[in-house]
Amino acid sequence: MTLDRAVLAFAGVMILLSVLLTVLVHPLWVWFTVFIGVNMIQSAFTGFCPAAMIFKAFGLKEGCAFK
After folding, report:
1. Residue 67 has pLDDT above 70, yes or no
2. How many CA atoms lie within 13 A of 46 on its CB side?
């Protein structure tokens, strides 16, 4: 698995988790979903992604998006 795919998979899992928490625990968990979306948007413009840095430290090989 490349770094790019790991970041996409992680983002998908976090979004699904935040939706599940919003539905089952409390509606204010929707702000977690908003945070994830804002982080994805800023990553698209700046290239800075904390999750990518963590996965890179774990030794995943780089893809074309995060170098």
Report:
1. no
2. 10
Alpha helices in the chain (DSSP H): 3-24, 30-46, 50-57
Query: Would you state the structure tokens that stand for residue 46, as one six-digit string?
Result: 């700046």
Coil/strand/helix, residue 61: strand
- As a residue count, the chain comes to 67
- Distance (Å, whole) CA 54 – CA 3: 10
The partner residues of 2 in beta bridges, in order of sequence, read 61
29-43 per-position pLDDT tens digit: 999 999 999 999 999
